[in-house]
Write a structure and sequence with these properties.
Layout lengths: L1 E6 L3 H10 L8 E7 L4 E2 L4 H6 L8 E2 L7 E5 L2 E5 L4 E4 L4 E3 L2 E4 L3 E3 L7 H4 L6 H11 L7 E5 L3 H13 L4 E5 L11 H13 L2 E4 L4 E5 L2 E4 L2 E4 L2 E4 L3 E3 L1 H4 L25 E3 L12 H19 L15 E6 L3 E6 L2 E5 H18 L1
Parallel strand pairs: 1-2, 1-9, 2-5, 9-19, 11-12, 11-17, 12-13
Antiparallel strand pairs: 3-4, 6-7, 7-8, 10-18, 14-15, 15-16, 20-21, 21-22
């Protein structure tokens, strides 16, 4: 019997299972999903968990159940492509015929001294819980710094403001204006929300060092009671150490069929795959859609198309607390209550679809 092994139960591999089960998987093939947790985590909502405005239960989705789907829970420590096995921390060796790697990413600290040791994270559910315990346990009037004003940093800062009105919040933005790569209308709306809600956005920042109770912006020392890092990501260590061709960010380079360059049985999707697009849940799902088409063609010994349909990202939606939001879709900017409802609707649809 053939064996398709999926590493990580994130957005990409959830889409693979959704498309193959129950009726599109060959009768002589089984799926094995390996993950450290017994559920799918909605990573796009980790900021709410960290801020204390959402619970674990709200941001979990159950994995599918099927007689030809086997779940293995454990810590993955490596992939041996010669023997075609996945190595687990407890000594298990899981063989595969085809492998889809969707292990996601972790924080990238850009060599900033102390950043790894003294900052908190929202990259995993466990780390988001730890961040929640710290942020929501701070004394009244404490000062929190959030390094990185991308979507994660913006959503965390706004959600934390709604959760803890007493905190002083500083959002450190490396650019001259928040969301500088998007229309000024969008940038101005987000900036005005922060101004109205007393969140200090520090433009043109360059964090050069982090200490246990302070950070340095350029040469300026800024005392802080807690710092959350949202200033960049990189593939997880297992993927960075794989003996495959990689791009400048340590992500495996994949062919147009999303397998690594020298192995048509190993696919990579999501945040750890090289791509022209920035990491996102939607990108991981679109990559997975194409991997499923390629797998089904190869299983049937059909000739692959010369070109797969190109990925066209529709845009993004973000929240500013529970009542306001912003979106950039089809080169159009949407702000306010409508944008927030759009995000809530997308989340509801995702849960409904996967349940």
């Amino acid at each position: 019997m053939g064996k398709l092994v999926l590493l990580g139960g994130g957005y990409g591999n959830m889409r693979v299972m959704l498309r193959l089960l129950p009726n599109n998987l060959p009768l002589d093939t089984e799926i094995v999903l390996i993950d450290r947790a017994p559920f799918h985590s909605l990573k796009t909502e980790f900021y709410a968990l960290a801020a204390g405005t959402a619970t674990d239960k709200e941001i979990r989705v159950s994995f599918p159940e099927h007689e030809r789907l086997t779940m293995i829970y454990g810590e993955i420590i490596g992939v041996d492509r010669v023997e075609k096995v996945v190595l687990l921390e407890d000594g298990q060796r899981i063989s595969y015929d085809d492998l889809v790697i969707g292990l996601g990413c972790e924080d990238k600290y850009h060599g900033v001294p102390g950043a790894d040791e003294y900052t908190y994270s929202i990259q995993t559910m466990a780390k988001s819980r730890e961040t929640f315990q710290t942020l929501c346990g701070l004394p009244a009037g404490s000062t929190v710094g959030i390094v990185g004003a991308g979507l994660s940093g913006i959503e965390l800062a706004s959600e934390l403001r709604e959760s803890r009105a007493d905190l002083q919040i500083h959002l450190f933005d490396r650019g001259p204006r928040i969301m500088k790569d998007f229309p000024e209308k969008l940038s101005n709306y987000v900036k005005e929300w922060f101004t109205k809600h007393n969140v200090a956005v520090v433009a043109n920042s360059n964090i050069t060092k982090v200490g246990p109770d302070k950070i340095y912006n350029h040469e300026e020392e800024i005392p802080l009671d807690a710092v959350v890092w949202t200033a960049g990501v990189q593939p997880v260590k297992i993927v960075r150490e794989m003996d495959v061709e990689k791009d400048g960010q340590g992500r495996p380079i994949v062919t147009e069929y999303f397998n690594v360059v020298d192995d048509e049985h190993v696919y990579v999707v999501g945040d750890c795959a090289s791509s022209e697009f920035p990491p996102s849940a939607y990108l991981a799902e679109e990559q997975a859609e194409r991997v499923v088409k390629v797998l089904r063609a190869r299983w049937k010994n059909e000739q692959l198309p010369e070109k797969l349909s190109p990925i066209k990202l529709k845009g993004f939606v973000g929240s500013l607390g529970k009542k306001q939001g912003f979106a950039y879709l089809a080169d159009k900017t949407v702000t306010g209550r409508i944008a927030r409802l759009m995000k809530s609707g997308i989340l509801w649809m995702y849960k409904y679809q996967n349940d």
